[in-house]
Specification:
Layout lengths: L2 H6 L3 H4 L1 H11 L4 E2 H8 L3 H13 L3 E8 L3 E8 L1 H37 L1
Antiparallel strand pairs: 1-3, 2-3
Helix pairs in contact: 3-6
InterPro entries: ArsR-like_HTH, WH-like_DNA-bd_sf, WH_DNA-bd_dom, WH_DNA-bd_sf
GO molecular function, one term: DNA binding
Keywords: DNA-binding
Length: 118
């Protein structure tokens, strides 16, 4: 299969840039507070909430809403084992596709230079 076709077949839930950013950030820590994750990703509250809801529905993250000192709301998010596997697989697929494209490009480039030399 051509590597370009593989790009189109990647998991769109994970591949979407905001969700990829969220999952990648969460894969680097045990859990993150909502506001920290918002700052880290640069997403608006509404946008982050929307993407987190999709990731939670797919069982890639767990969201915990609770109160600190009985009155301060706090939302924490952690990546699940499925989420960690999905984001790791995604980055591995991207690296593999990128390498295949680079090799293909080098092959095309070598073929072109041989035809020019003749």
């Amino acid at each position: 299969m051509l590597p370009y076709k593989e790009l189109a077949r990647m998991d769109k839930l994970v591949h979407e840039p905001a969700r990829l950013s969220i999952l990648t950030a969460l894969s680097a820590c045990t859990l993150a507070e909502f506001l920290f994750l918002q700052e880290l990703t640069g997403l608006t509250k509404g946008n982050l909430s929307s993407h987190l809801a999709k990731l939670e529905k797919a069982n890639l993250v767990v969201i915990d809403k609770h109160f600190v000192r009985k009155k301060i709301p706090q939302t924490t998010i952690r990546i699940t084992a499925d989420g960690r596997s999905a984001v790791e697989r995604h980055w591995q697929q991207l690296a593999s596709i990128h390498e295949a494209i680079r090799k293909q490009g080098a092959h095309v480039h070598l073929s072109e230079s041989k035809s020019i030399q003749r």
